[in-house]
Design brief:
Helix content is about 50%, strand content about 15%. It is α+β, with helices and mostly antiparallel strands and about 160 residues long. It has two domains: about 5-60, no CATH class; about 60-130, no CATH class. The strands form two sheets. It has a three-stranded antiparallel beta sheet. Strands 4-5 form a two-stranded antiparallel sheet.
Length: about 160
């Protein structure tokens, strides 16, 4: 990632970098190399860098979010008959790893969206397991409330 005050300077720097890399047997990837204005934003290492009203904001990229959610949904679909505590043990490292990687960026909205999307995927998983049971029964079996905190997929009950 290289920054400059104008596009012409960046194009000159790109030529210098290409020459530098060529001497070492390397080259820039044309499909990955992009010159863009910071107000338009760009993705780098799973983050989206962009200026909003003159302030630089770094957020998890949409591609990164879609990738982790696809992985989580596929894992839930693959584990149709697994016990909930085993499903939690499979999902937790994936979720925790992605969230820890993005914790230094502005991730609040991504975390909220992820919470909602994972809940929906788990709800489908639970309803599939008990199609004839009412929603209230399913909620009581798989989600618990502790004090003021509600809606956590619980691990301590035996299935």
């Amino acid at each position: 990632m290289i920054t400059a005050t104008n596009k012409e300077v960046l194009e000159e720097i790109k030529i210098i970098i290409e020459d530098f890399l060529k001497k070492r047997g390397l080259e820039l990837s044309e499909e990955k190399t992009e010159i863009t204005h910071i107000n338009k934003g760009f993705n780098f290492l799973g983050w989206n860098f962009r200026k909003y009203d003159g302030k630089m904001i770094i957020k998890p990229s949409k591609k990164s979010y879609k990738s982790i959610m696809k992985e989580i949904r596929e894992e839930i679909k693959k584990q149709k008959t697994i016990k909930q505590r085993d499903l939690i043990r499979i999902l937790n490292p994936k979720i925790r790893g992605w969230c820890n990687y993005h914790r230094t960026a502005c991730s609040k909205k991504s975390y909220q969206r992820m919470d909602r999307d994972i809940f929906q995927a788990l709800w489908k998983w639970a309803k599939r397991r008990h199609p004839k049971k009412p929603s209230k029964w399913t909620k009581g079996k798989y989600w618990k409330s502790e004090g003021n905190v509600t809606g956590y997929f619980q691990m301590d009950r035996q299935n």
